[in-house]
Amino acid sequence: MQMKGLLWMAPVALVALAVACGGNDKQPVSPTSSSVSAAASGVSAAGDGVTLKVNAPALTSPIGGVRLTEGQATLTFQAATGKYVSGETFTYRIQLLSAASVVLEEKTGTALTYKMTTQFDTDTLYRWRVRAELQGSTGPWSTTETFKSMLKPTGYIRGNEIYDPLDNGKTVGTIVGPYTWIPGVGLRLDAEESYVEYALPTTLREGEYSVLVSGLAVVSSNEDPKLRVITMREGGSSINDNIYRMSADKRGNGAIAYRFITGDASTGAYIESGPSERIPYPFHENLTYFYNASWRGGIFSLKVVEGGVAGNTIYDISKAYHGIYQPSPHMVYLGSPYAAGDRGDPSTVDGMVIRQVWVSPNPRPSWANQ
């Protein structure tokens, strides 16, 4: 009889932890609640849906409407504690909310810090909250804290990331050759020998390079002149002979072309657009085009969109490559670099107007799309 009594009392501590909280504190209703019903959890749930006897997690950062200094939010909080049982490992549900309390992103896990992936609008209020969960039972939501997203940057180079708006008469790069600032629009490169040079402090092995560009036009009946919109290379050796070259073109007849090299000329480490991929397109000087080159997971892609980021896609091609893209130093260009003695000729699309330069391992933020 003593043995049976001991077996009967063993679950008491766990039951005490999962008994519903009977207080009158009002908790916010989750827009996408995942708490189980009282019948399903085997306990009597309180009116606010709490079925786990724990304290709410305390939010640590960011709180109090503080402004972020980077494009994404890292949310940190303190662990929940059981009211009657200690030592339990809780799962946490973290919700990132709009100012109107619409759930924008939700994560679960046992850690106390989470980097969210939501790309924020600039200078905008956001909210967040956390609760503990255990075996289908849910604790109370924390208080809801707020923060503001960063102001739109004026331009920077940080590690392996570049943002250069170019619509403010300034650049974080170095301009070579003749150019014209067009207020509120961008930077016009006025000759085939003109270009803008950026030096990345850290090599970007996988990521994207994207810009908004206007002033593109059809100027001939064939592919000449073969001019470039954006390029990258290693150091200062000639772009035409560089073993880490990336280039995205606009040819004379409007054909779009590309070349991508990852260190040598072996099969798959040197890829370029074939004749069937270079289809002439009727570019219009007064329209804006979005050029986006990306290299991730062994796939190089080039996408061109007419009318800006959300416009009509006119070119979208992907091709597998071998090797690792690891130029050192990693140099990035608007147009194409050229120096006396280089093989080939100056080859920047003269007259193109570029703005909103983005080079990064991270997706292009919405504030760079205007």
**Whole-Å distance between the termini?**
78 Å
- Share of helix, binned: under 10%
Low-confidence stretches: 1-47
What structural class do the secondary elements suggest? mainly beta
Tell me the name of the CATH class of the largest domain.
Mainly Beta
Rg computed from alpha carbons, rounded to a whole number of angstroms: 28 Å
Count of β-strands: 25
- Tell me which CATH architecture of the largest domain applies here: Sandwich
**Total domains:** 2
Number of helices: 3
Task: Please summarize the sheet with the most strands.
Answer: 9 strands, antiparallel
Which H/E pattern describes the elements?
HHHEEEEEEEEEEEEEEEEEEEEEEEEE
The CATH topology of the largest domain comes to Jelly Rolls
What is the global morphology?
elongated
Describe the protein's architecture and organization.
With 370 residues, the chain is mainly β. It folds into 2 domains: 131 residues, Sandwich (Immunoglobulin-like), CATH 2.60.40.10; 213 residues, Jelly Rolls (Sandwich). It is 5% helix and 37% strand. The strands form 4 sheets. Strands 10, 11, 13, 14, 16, 21, 22, 23 and 25 form a 9-stranded antiparallel sheet that branches. A hairpin with a 5-residue loop joins strand 22 and strand 23. The longest helix is centred in the first third of the chain and has 8 residues. The chain is elongated and about 80 Å long. The N terminus is likely disordered.
Question: What descriptive keywords fit this protein?
Answer:
370 residues, mainly beta, Immunoglobulin-like, Jelly Rolls, nine-stranded antiparallel beta sheet, seven-stranded antiparallel beta sheet, 3 helices, 25 strands, 5% helix, 37% strand, disordered N terminus
